[in-house]
Write a structure and sequence with these properties.
Helix content of chain A: 10-25%
Largest interface: A-B, 32 and 32 residues
CATH class of chain A: Alpha Beta
Radius of gyration of chain B: 14 Å
Distance between the termini of chain B: 35 Å
Number of helices of chain A: 4
Structural class of chain A: alpha/beta
Order of helices and strands of chain A: EHEEEEHEHEEEHEEE
CATH superfamily of chain B: Phosphatidylinositol 3-kinase Catalytic Subunit, Chain A, domain 1
Strand content of chain A: 35-45%
Largest sheet of chain B: 6 strands, mixed
Number of helices of chain B: 2
CATH architecture of chain B: Roll
Oligomer: heterodimer
Distance between the termini of chain A: 37 Å
CATH class of chain B: Alpha Beta
Shape of chain B: globular
Largest sheet of chain A: 10 strands, mixed
Chain lengths: ~180, ~100
């Protein structure tokens, strides 16, 4: 079986967007970058089932910088493998006045696997309009910006709820109560 | 990818062989292969990286992939995989990436 089935459509529930914004606004209020992982089933139509919020031990949130250590990444890997889920996207913020676009540093540091989404939210996570976010897909060895037309065609927004929200640190993943 | 055809292939090998599984978070399918117990971790790491299409690289920063098991990152990859067997003849690793900032950080 191929490790990376092609993705035609990413299905993302509005509740995932709400959870993402709630998570990244916490560090954003302190002028720091933050981010989340979108995790779910990878297939032609890939469905985001969970928003995983790396925070605390093993996560660096700073002005102009967000990093998840290998230990946290490993904890999320173990948790996702138990569910048969994969990393579908990484969503992180840029601060006030910084364009919602991938920086050269982002391009180097983000996961490099075909079909993975990289999403950048501006204004420290206060920008609620997904059309103003930066949308990128890793393909042919690099992150490529997704045009508005392509985003409209390939991003299926639903309003059915049911998204799980988990917190992750180097000790493991647990259901998120207070972001 | 060559490694794909190597996975999930029944091997007539030694009954002592260890069934190794490696997950990588962005991938929908894990790497599977049977190895002799004395196989060193580096052999598995390299094969898994090939299967997942990733490689160590040096840019401004250094990017290196590690196998981890039970929350422990394996840095000494010259060890035999038999050191990590917990139940029967199976091992389940996860492939993770470490980024070491360069001097311009």
């Amino acid at each position: 079986m191929q490790p990376y089935p092609g993705i035609d459509v990413w299905q993302l529930d509005e509740s995932a967007i709400t959870a993402t914004l709630a998570a990244v606004q916490r560090p954003g209020r302190d002028g720091k970058e933050g981010g989340v992982f979108w995790v779910g089933t990878r297939a032609s139509v890939s469905v985001v089932h969970a928003v995983v919020v790396p925070a605390g031990n093993g996560v660096i949130e700073a002005a102009g910088f967000w990093q998840v250590t290998p230990e946290v990444y490993g904890a999320i890997s173990r948790w996702a493998a138990e569910r048969g889920w994969s990393l579908l996207g990484i969503c992180h913020t840029h601060g006030e006045g910084v364009p919602a676009r991938l920086s050269p540093q982002d391009r180097g540091h983000l996961v490099r696997a075909p079909g993975v989404l990289a999403v950048v939210i501006g204004s420290g996570g206060r920008d609620h309009d997904v059309e103003r976010w930066g949308w990128y897909e890793f393909t042919s060895g690099a992150y490529r910006e997704i045009s508005p037309d392509e985003r409209d065609r390939r991003l299926r927004l639903t309003d059915e709820g049911g998204i799980e929200v988990w917190a992750a640190d180097r000790r493991g993943c647990r259901p998120a109560v207070n972001l | 990818m060559t490694a794909v055809s190597e996975t999930d292939t029944p091997m007539p090998g030694d009954l002592r062989d260890i069934q190794v599984t490696v997950d990588y978070l962005p991938a929908a399918a894990p790497f599977h292969h049977r190895y002799a117990p004395e196989t060193i971790v580096e052999t598995v790491r390299v094969a898994a990286m090939k299967f997942f299409g990733v490689q160590d690289r040096q840019e401004r920063d250094t990017y290196r992939y590690f196998l981890e098991i039970g929350g422990t990152r394996i840095t000494d990859t010259s060890q035999p995989i038999s050191n990590f067997v917990e139940h029967g003849h199976e091992i389940h690793f996860h492939l993770v990436e470490q980024i070491t900032p360069g001097s311009a950080w």
